[in-house]
What we know:
The protein is an alpha/beta fold and about 600 residues long. Helices cover about 40% and strands about 20% of the residues. Strand 8 (about 400-405) and strand 9 (about 415-420) form a beta hairpin.
Amino acid sequence: xxxxxxxLFEDTVSLMQARWVLTPDQQDIVAQIARxxxxxxxxxxxxxxxxxxxDQVPSYLSPSLARDFPDPLSLKDMAPxxxxxxxxxxxxxxxxxxxxxxxxxxxxxxxxxxxxxHLGQDVPFYIPDRVKEGYGPNETALKTLxxxxxxxxxxxxxxxxxxxxxxAGNDMGLESVILDHHEAEDTLPxxxxxxxxxxxxxxxxxxxxxxxxxxxxxxxxxxxxxxEAGYYNRRALPEAPLKDWLDLVAxxxxxxxxxxxxxxxxxxxxxxxxxxxxxxxGLKSLCDVARIDGAPESYxxxxxxxxxxxxGSRVDKADLGARLLATEDPGExxxxxxxxxxxxxxxxxxxxxMMAHAERMVESExxxxxxxxxxxxxxxxxxxxxxxAGRLKEKYGKPAVVISYAAGENGALEGRGSGRxxxxxNIGACFIAARHEGLVLKGGGHAMAAGFxxxxxxxxxxxxxxxxxxxxxxxxxxxxSDVRVDAVLSVRGATADLVKMIQSRLGPFGQDxxxxxxVLPHVRLFKADVVGKDHVRLLLGDWDGGGRLKAVAxxxxxxxxxxxxLKHGRDRPFHVAGCFKLDRWNGREQVEMHIHDAAFALAGxxxxxxxx
Length: 612
């Protein structure tokens, strides 16, 4: 493998129009990490180029709840919130929960329901209808909870921009607590408490957290306050089994695509250990229905469990996911899991039809040449806008916004939009700016994923504004055009032992902690064909002979990448870039490469330079 600095292929433009750059390292530090921690050179290099210092290696490779757990009280206003909720619980005040309809919201809601249930509290919860109500709290929902006797409403994974709705809740006599992680503005909503690591005055350094992580820290802080107040002793009640619920934190964190750094890395690793025990009957039922063999991994969370939990709010009932994760009844869990499986199948069919329509619009209107792709249609399903936006972003390599339409609270037609972005373009900031300009009714979110609501007559001005905003960010040079390559291997070097070591020691992988990208230079394509609708299946080998390696390029058949590999096949060598996976089938393990990009190999002795 190679650790040469710079780009090995700097004169080559890849088939996906990218420049591959081999990340430089400092060999003395790599050697130090390998020596001090008894690690193979490849693991030491991957740690070093990810910014892990020699003294940080133990915490990174094996984060410990005892050693590395973050201080909940470091979050702004956490200490007074913990005392407030502990007193409210002691006094028997009625508390309700309002949660978002995505996986982060469902896991956050389930955490709170499980926590309060353990304390003997009956906690009603409300998940808004994705189609009819849209994202975030609304007055009707707060009134519903008020009518159920709620005095305090905890809003999780939403609320940070809901100024008017929170004020309406105040006017009803509700006390609101916001537990969020979305971008905050200078002025906060008039809630009793706002816990959000993205508050401008929050110095905790925990801005990587998903809402479920924030909620978990709130539960820890309140648990401590109750213990110190003697709540558990007076009632002869064991403390809440918080560690058991880390499986929910791991699931929500992975699915919300927040950075898997710092506290999130700890939560996800510890959470998947808990998930393997199968104590959450809802998760266990969903794993059984989805035919997950063995312990779930981060891949299953993001691509198997998460889509099914989300499918309820997309095509059926919004609260199915939270109910599944909160229940302790195996029969109810199995029933909901099968309902979600059916919802997910229906979602796939609707999504494919939407995607095909959106692609036709992009091509016919020349939108691929715009700074951002913005499409919409009244016949599209509001629950699938984000998924289609993500697919468009992947296909065209630029920010994508998809707008569908549904009736709002007053019956008037509203556009419900979702955006997905690329590195260097903060789509959430674009939508917040549009709200300040009066171009949307609601808008906000993350840098990479965000949403908004607008009136149909606002669309043209909104489209022009977002195009200017994205173009400005791109002009400022924020976009990243290079693709980082971690190492160069031969096909022979891509062994199952290597892949297992990378996954077990360096995982989990996700946002801001990408899987290592390897280049296999000068490979021969022994086989290339299309499987499924548009995936390209390949069989690779080193140009000069040796073993074979299975590979797949997903949704690549109609791209320059797929077309080149299908057309040229065995007649010329390729460099291929991608990640390695372990394909487990019938008790056998086999390495498979997921190809992200490829380039035609140049003549000469480049292979000798690439492999050391």
